[in-house]
Specification:
This protein is α+β, with helices and mostly antiparallel strands. The chain folds into three domains: 132 residues, no CATH class; 56 residues, no CATH class; 261 residues, Fido-like domain (Fic-like fold). It is 50% helix and 8% strand. Strand 6 and strand 7 form a beta hairpin. Helix 5 packs across helix 7, helix 10 runs parallel beside helix 15 and helix 16 runs antiparallel to helix 17. The longest helix is centred in the middle third of the chain and has 18 residues.
Length: 492
Amino acid sequence: MEKSIPLHLQEIIFTDKNLSRQIGKWEKEGLIKKIAPLIYTGKIHETPEMLIRRNLFTILGRQYPNAIISHRSALELKPTETGDFFLTYTYTKKIGLPGITLHFLQGIGPIEGDRLFTGELYLGQQARAFLENLQISRREGPKSKTLPRSVIEEKLESIIRVNGEDAINQLRDQARTIAPALALEKEFEQLNKLIGALLATQPSKLLSSPVGKARALGNPFDSTRVQLLEQLFVELQQRAFKNRLDKNKSSPSFANFAFFESYFSNYIEGTVFTVSEAKEIIETQRPLPTRNEDSHDVLGTYHIVSSRQEMQVIPNSGEHLLEILQYRHKVLLSARPEKNPGMFKDKDNFAGQTTFVEYELVRGTLLKGFDFYKVLNSPVGKALFMMFLISEVHPFLDGNGRIARVMMNAELVTAGESKIMIPTVYRDDYIGALRRLTRKKDPDAYIRMMERAREFSENVYGDNRDDMENYLLSCNAFLEDTEGKILQIVPR
């Protein structure tokens, strides 16, 4: 209770014999209102449902001493979507509060390892919660005291993924210790088998969730990222994309586009050259003396995107996708041995506030992504999905953005569609839309951004490199995004 705020203005006011007369007076004066038995509030304009939900733990800690948040509620720490919340107490009873139904289940009180949460309310320890969730429940769905088996598997897998096998083994040891005191020996046997299956020491057929099966088969994946990929997949599958056929059909024209494509792709990632320096690198096939590694980055990108044969290779299976990625990365970063060219990352990587897929989940997440990719109808949809998949997983220590754009354009070349280049002036729009999809789960902004890049890129063609450069200049393509200019699409 907030002592600095007068009692009659506080969110939650508990009445008792000493306060009952004063409470009655305030209620008559309209200063407070009753929201539940023995519970009043000074926030008279707020709904009882919101107040109860916001102060649930405070209420439980005051009115039900030594109750234990248990079963699914101990793992979710919030009411279910139907407003049900489960506790272990001295009796079995169902009590209704505005917006929430409390289910008290008679059982054993706090034991060593259960934590005092707030007031006199306890939170069941993690091992206890998993054992309780393996009890038989007569109900299903959000009314059930236990989580679905698939969700339990996903939560166990998450412990392994985030904290390693030692953490799950510690959980198992703790569950083994407390099971007799709780009369949950049978539930421990189930938990033991589930953990064994996740660690591949028990048959994987015991598992029901996709993430659990993937862990058992050695390809665990990032389930949150897979949900995001599914959302993008659904949006792309419903879109109709205008055909923008490739106008760079001749070898010189294809090579010219590839030059500026590789130039911009490296520039975006911070490998900054003037156009004349990039021309010298490509024409001589030799790095600049003072910038060996950066020069090789430009050469590596160009070697891939200028090869029509290479750019017509697209994955036909999940494993083939992994092979293509590793081969192209090896070519791209051949001059940077410290970046492990051709090898998936062996530590986690970040960009600002974004944490990419954990290194142990790279293969599994890419394989799950391929399952969506292979079903997409439109080659443009496949290209945009592939670009985001690689960008979001970030499977390598370096070169992820360049590889993502290479994989995207390979889809377009194979389909006879115009490739996409992301010019310097469009970098902010490009990065912003990717970030918005990652953080806000907004595929529309990403798709609209890429569609504008497609419209622009369709007009970049010609056998003369200087003419192509002049066209790019007319579109503001080489300007820094900080110069306040926008990408112009000049008709041709």
